[in-house]
Amino acid sequence: MAGAEAANGRNKYAVLDPSDEPEGRRRPSAWERRSKERFVLACAIFASLNAILLGYDVGVMSGAIIYIQKDLHITEFQEEILVGCLSVVSLLGSLSGGRTSDAIGRKWTMALGAIVFQAGAAIMTFAPSFTVLMIGRLLAGVGIGFGAMVSAVYIAEISPAAARGTLTSLPEICINLGILLGYVSNYAFSGLSEHINWRIMLGVGILPSVFIGFALFVIPESPRWLMMEKRVPEARAVLLQISESEAEVEERIAEIEEAANLLKSTKSEDKAVWMELLNPSPAVRRMLYAGCGIQMFQQITGIDATVYYSPTIFRDAGIKSDQELLAATVAVGFTKTVFILVAIFLIDKVGRKPLLYVSTIGMTMCLFVLGIALTLQKHAMGLISPRIGIDLAVFAVCGNVAFFSIGMGPICWVLSSEIFPLRLRAQASALGQVGGRVSSGLVSMSFLSMARIISVAGMFFVFAVISTVSVAFVYFCVPETKGKTLEQIEMMFEDGKEWRGSEIELEDTQHLIQSSKKSVSLG
């Protein structure tokens, strides 16, 4: 019976399983280990493609909105709603995505998200009015919520502990790549007719669906989800593809079974997930503080306002022509994409907290500098030349997105996907996404209105103060999870003393701050 089940698992999953031959528990060769590492990397990359959709939409809308205003004659209020509603409505996708991924699996939830997004993108491309454009925007937001939530969870569940930080950061790389592609698309099509160019800009976002469709035929289902569904032979077949040895497979199966309470029935097994989240134990409460808090601080420090409204910021700094504005945004997108690679190389070597310290402290300094630069341009024209003011503003924006990409950007995804126990992971990650998306939407939908009251410079002084608070949040609420399995992280949160004892000193990150400053100045 077990043999038949294993055979069924192999038919679907074990295409690349070299250790399934009757050779006992032999140690895999170096070639086999590299092959499995490449397979895990390929799965993580394909799962991250959904994030390109989010990034592209964020980047392309910052430029497309210039021409949408001219073509559809929308008001400033409508502009704020159009830009910010995607973040808010994506929470519907995040909330339903957690339950959906528990019901049909991580893999097919990603597929559903991509389909919904592409439907919304197609409607936006051919929208004859603001109302139809909003309908497409709302659909796209739901699809983005699905994909953003489940991608990081899927990657965390297939990744070995030693590489989980790097692999779970891939969605953030894809978001940055998508933003850069959106900025490039804006610049490339800006010379076309105002009735056509923004439609092409939005329509190009449909192309990633081809790669996502191909990915579904390559990546397996999450082994941890399969274990939750009691499909142990299939889970073992997947683990054989992504683990170095059969001994490691058995060890990981035992850890997952223990975490999922598959070996023994307990009262908590029957407890509703949302009831547990609404009435959390001290350990789960600490997880929620860390996971949901980092999501909110990622957004309320103003990163989406910087990306969405970068043309507005640069116009306030003194840049006049639309093409120059879009060219400056390409520089921002390029900087954001390049510096995410710094985090990818360091996250599993240096750890999460040092990079978060570098990120939050660096962002705080750059936000203050940006506020000062915009203030000088408006109220102290005689003190600096207009050109220097523009250069300082561009430098500050690029520095802000660079420091964001070093820590707050990727590590937010990593922590949200790795700190929650298996029984809560999908729904708790979705809850964190809700906090992040609501925060992003509130910032995006109020930025222009608030800037009219306190000025664009005033808004960035506010963001700088919030960023200062985020440094303290990292110190007190975020533990170090480098090198730990998902099950070990759960036990760490259960032990409050060990959780507190995992804090590190700020002095440990001074050399990283200094090297990051040099990198930004060179950029």
UniProtKB/TrEMBL annotation:
<comment type="similarity">
    <text>Belongs to the major facilitator superfamily. Sugar transporter (TC 2.A.1.1) family.</text>
</comment>
<dbReference type="InterPro" id="IPR005828">
    <property type="entry name" value="MFS_sugar_transport-like"/>
</dbReference>
<feature type="transmembrane region" description="Helical">
    <location>
        <begin position="325"/>
        <end position="348"/>
    </location>
</feature>
<dbReference type="GO" id="GO:0015293">
    <property type="term" value="F:symporter activity"/>
</dbReference>
<keyword id="KW-0812">Transmembrane</keyword>
<dbReference type="InterPro" id="IPR003663">
    <property type="entry name" value="Sugar/inositol_transpt"/>
</dbReference>
<dbReference type="Pfam" id="PF00083">
    <property type="entry name" value="Sugar_tr"/>
</dbReference>
<feature type="transmembrane region" description="Helical">
    <location>
        <begin position="453"/>
        <end position="478"/>
    </location>
</feature>
<feature type="transmembrane region" description="Helical">
    <location>
        <begin position="110"/>
        <end position="128"/>
    </location>
</feature>
<keyword id="KW-0769">Symport</keyword>
<keyword id="KW-1133">Transmembrane helix</keyword>
<feature type="region of interest" description="Disordered">
    <location>
        <begin position="1"/>
        <end position="29"/>
    </location>
</feature>
<feature type="transmembrane region" description="Helical">
    <location>
        <begin position="354"/>
        <end position="376"/>
    </location>
</feature>
<protein>
    <recommendedName>
        <fullName>Major facilitator superfamily (MFS) profile domain-containing protein</fullName>
    </recommendedName>
</protein>
<feature type="transmembrane region" description="Helical">
    <location>
        <begin position="39"/>
        <end position="69"/>
    </location>
</feature>
<feature type="transmembrane region" description="Helical">
    <location>
        <begin position="134"/>
        <end position="155"/>
    </location>
</feature>
<dbReference type="InterPro" id="IPR036259">
    <property type="entry name" value="MFS_trans_sf"/>
</dbReference>
<feature type="coiled-coil region">
    <location>
        <begin position="239"/>
        <end position="269"/>
    </location>
</feature>
<feature type="domain" description="Major facilitator superfamily (MFS) profile">
    <location>
        <begin position="43"/>
        <end position="482"/>
    </location>
</feature>
<keyword id="KW-0813">Transport</keyword>
<keyword id="KW-0175">Coiled coil</keyword>
<feature type="transmembrane region" description="Helical">
    <location>
        <begin position="196"/>
        <end position="219"/>
    </location>
</feature>
<dbReference type="InterPro" id="IPR020846">
    <property type="entry name" value="MFS_dom"/>
</dbReference>
<dbReference type="InterPro" id="IPR050814">
    <property type="entry name" value="Myo-inositol_Transporter"/>
</dbReference>
<feature type="transmembrane region" description="Helical">
    <location>
        <begin position="167"/>
        <end position="184"/>
    </location>
</feature>
<feature type="transmembrane region" description="Helical">
    <location>
        <begin position="388"/>
        <end position="416"/>
    </location>
</feature>
<dbReference type="InterPro" id="IPR005829">
    <property type="entry name" value="Sugar_transporter_CS"/>
</dbReference>
<keyword id="KW-0472">Membrane</keyword>
<dbReference type="GO" id="GO:0016020">
    <property type="term" value="C:membrane"/>
</dbReference>
<keyword id="KW-0762">Sugar transport</keyword>
